[in-house]
Amino acid sequence: MVNKTFKVAEIELAYKPNYKTADKPKIKDSNGACQILIDHWDQNKIGLLEEFKILLMNRGNRVLGVVHISSGGMGGTVADPKLIFAAALKSCANGIILSHNHPSGETQPSQEDITITRKLKHGGKLLDIQILDHIIIGHEEFYSFSD
């Protein structure tokens, strides 16, 4: 019998933020969250293609970061739960605000939007990461699932 040795990648967990928490913006409502998201959106693309982004939040509702999850076409994009929760876990986030735009400008959620929100809320419960909101951005308005 041949003895085979397998190399296994070593995984190290570390968290070294390079900022002061007090310097990060604090989210008080959906308007504040929407403004931060829009500031991180390429305005030349917001009416052209659908993108999915998340705000990573600490327990005090301070923004830890904005993460671009995906870009799609005019009719949709993929919100991969593994990427979303990997970003949240890596940043030690306690909460997530989901967001995507509708290039059509219509902000009412589709059935797919409702389904992915429920799916991510369920996954968040398993990981003890709260989905705080899902914001759909249009041309002149936004829709907040929490509102």
From TrEMBL:
- List keywords of the entry alphabetically: Hydrolase, Metal-binding, Metalloprotease, Protease, Zinc
Example GO biological process term? proteolysis
**Span of domain MPN:** 27-147
Q: Can you say what this protein is called?
A: DNA repair protein RadC
Q: Name one Pfam family in it.
A: RadC
Tell me the PROSITE patterns matching this sequence.
Answer: MPN (PS50249), UPF0758 (PS01302)
What is the originating organism of this protein?
Pedobacter duraquae
Q: Name one GO molecular function term.
A: metal ion binding
InterPro entries from the entry? MPN, RadC_JAB, UPF0758, UPF0758_CS
Give the Gene3D superfamilies listed for this entry. Answer: Cytidine Deaminase, domain 2
So where does this one cross the membrane?
Answer: none
